[in-house]
Amino acid sequence: MRALPGGGMSDALLSLRHVSLRLNETDVLENVNLSVQPGEIVTLIGPNGAGKTSLVRVVLGLLKATSGEVRRRPRLRIGYMPQKLQVDPSLPLTVLRFLLLVPGVRRPAVEAALVDVGAEHLLERPLQQVSGGELQRILLARALLREPDLLVLDEPVQGVDVNGQIELYQLITRLRDRYGCGVLMVSHDLHLVMATTNTVVCINRHVCCSGHPEQVSTDPAFVAMFGEQASALAVYSHHHDHGHDLHGEVVPHEHGPGCKHA
Description:
This protein is an alpha/beta fold.
């Protein structure tokens, strides 16, 4: 990230400067600064009630900041993946029909997006019959249908077991590489996103610390918030030498350019 005078960021898809949010006489966010560059994965972490989802809503324009500045690149396309989706069990809706609800989308685009997320076999499946991990992939495909410059993912591994979470984080990285988009992602587990994020922003209403994952995992503010054990897990996760497939089986890690495992 390249800083500009006054705290701005050059070429950023998105930048927040001194953003505060007050709701119902409560300070939800205080003086938050962050930016997302093209091709960068920025992960927001923090305890429950820290303001992570509220910050996402400010980014999306669903909430207006009480003070500060939110800058989005002109004509920025955002693909949003919500934390959860409630589907009426009596509503006869297949995955295909659900994704065709995205304005302007046709079946070939839906099929291509499902291939991208490894869920093409779910095309005609009733939405109520998919697993938690499958639903997250469908929601990710829905976000991709907007051909986004920026993916905003609110707890993208919600309701998924640990092995499935690892695979989903790896998938997000592959999609970033393929599309060249930026990613702003909310998580509460630094040790799981350690190997698949560029920048971590730890918030608890305000920014407690930010930087590269290894830097944040040893920051006194992070350790105070999550404990010494979480810091050790974060470092371990970044150096593990294997991955997991869709069924949770261990697969060897493929070393690529810049890989720290090699």
